Amino acid sequence: MNSTTVRNLLVRGMLAGLAAGVLALVAAYFLGEPSVDSAISFEDAHSHEHEMEVVSRSLQSTAGLATGVLVYGVAFGGIAALAFCVALGRVGRFSPRATALLLSGCALLAVYVVPFLKYPANPPSVGDPDTIGKRTTLYFLMMLLGVLLAVAATILGKRLAPTLGTWYATVLAVAAFAVAIGLAYAFLPAVNEVPKDFPATLLWRFRLSALAIQAVLWGGFGLLFGELAERQLNPKPVTAGSGRRVPATH
Question: What's the predicted TM-score (pTM) here?
């Protein structure tokens, strides 16, 4: 894959990330923001200190939310496109479209779902401000472990495939990944700082919406970028004026 192709895929990845960010923004606004508002109301009702807002809540939930989600979408789209360039042809004989979707699904699992199951997202008013540094460190450590173990499982599956066959090698690699993640869950410290009177339904709804937003973002990117990458790498032949089909040129 030459530098021109990589550059074209990088641009397409950023565009797909931007489009996926728009989809995630819609999901965040309609699914996540109501839970955030409810959590803030709970916090205000149980707090004796009233701090002045530097940025209004209405601005946070509109322009602030849009800026954060869209910038994140473009950035992660570019990184994912570069990862796609590395993975294409190395994880199996999949088409660009299938590779993009597979990569997005695995990234969602390793980057978000794995740390989420150990350290799930919390709404405002949940969590001790004094432990935010510790909680952030543990979360990113779990994320790093998820990515490294996913890469290790992929390498293991590729190494075992010639001996065991693709099916059994994949099953064994997935099982090894699950066992390693389970051990990490067991040895890393747990964090439980939910107030006793915090509504369980609200907590569940917030966490479910956070997971749904990420699924929309990664799933949308996989579908959109897969289509763009397929058209870039496997262009359809064009039809000449006489009706004769000729190969497409780059």
Answer: 0.84
